[in-house]
Amino acid sequence: MFRGDGRAVVPISASMAADDDKRLAAEAAMAEVVDGMLVGLGTGSTAAHAIRALARRAGDGLRIDCVATSETSAALARGLGLSVRDFAAVASVDLTIDGADEIDGGCRAIKGAGGAMLREKCVAAASRRMVVIADGSKWVDRLGGAPVPVEVLPFAHSFVARVLEQRAMPVLRMVDKAPYLTDQRNVVLDCRFAGLDPAADATWLQSIPGVLGHGLFLSEVAAAYVAEHGNVTRLERSRGTG
Ligand SMILES: O=C[C@H](O)[C@H](O)[C@H](O)COP(=O)(O)O
């Protein structure tokens, strides 16, 4: 099966459960999890489906350890009986399963609507393989419809915002009338770019003092499971991409 842009995709299954594409995508990714793995747990509503699916499989006898990309995911996983190790003591992860805010045909993603992109990037980088799970609304031809979240040292946020204005419209993320804080107690500037150039803008973001991380995942994602109207498609990153 081919998308309009000619990229090959592999149809996996069709399901009557069209109202729960996130869960279907998460369950499809379970095929990649085998006994003995150290699994990276993503963050967000789609990743939560994967955590619940992993817990069910662990209940059926699958032996895995996990690391989590957020305190929320760690708490969910532990509450379901999964073994969650401290990532600070982990150098390498076998497989990470995470959500995304946007994913394109080259398996490039925008992540971080839930504020977890810095830990997600660290765990992804430590992983032998990272797969994204998503419902069809996340699948885009071109990245940039969603804002790019940028995690910033609070000390530097006004300076960083001024620099970001050269290429984007940064908005300080707020919750209950106060700046949103990540698990690391940093702030987030959500950036809408006027014509995102993913590679150039990722390099530029990383060069700004005070920027600790951002939600552009351009080389980390090996494959994506995208469920749309009950149909799950696996999109593999092309060799040589990114
Ligand atoms: O910080 C949050 C993460 O990057 C999420 O994986 C991403 O925002 C997707 O979340 P959801 O599955 O809830 O749409």
Automatic annotation (TrEMBL):
Question: Molecular function terms in GO for this entry?
Answer: ribose-5-phosphate isomerase activity
Q: Which domain of life is it from?
A: Bacteria
Enumerate the SUPFAM superfamilies for this protein: D-ribose-5-phosphate isomerase (RpiA), lid domain, NagB/RpiA/CoA transferase-like
Protein name according to UniProt: Ribose 5-phosphate isomerase A
Classification via InterPro entries: NagB/RpiA_transferase-like, Ribose5P_isomerase_type_A
Per UniProt, the enzyme's principal EC class comes to isomerase
* Keyword Repeat appears in the UniProt entry: no
Q: Which catalysed reactions does the entry list for this protein?
A: aldehydo-D-ribose 5-phosphate = D-ribulose 5-phosphate
Return the EC number. Answer: 5.3.1.6
The biological processes this protein is annotated with in GO are: D-ribose metabolic process; pentose-phosphate shunt, non-oxidative branch
Q: Which CDD domains match?
A: RPI_A (cd01398)
Keywords of this entry: Isomerase
What cellular-component terms does GO give this entry?
Answer: cytosol
> Taxonomy-wise, where does this protein's organism fall, top ranks first?
Bacteria, Pseudomonadati, Pseudomonadota, Alphaproteobacteria, Sphingomonadales
Q: Does the keyword Isomerase feature in the UniProt annotation?
A: yes
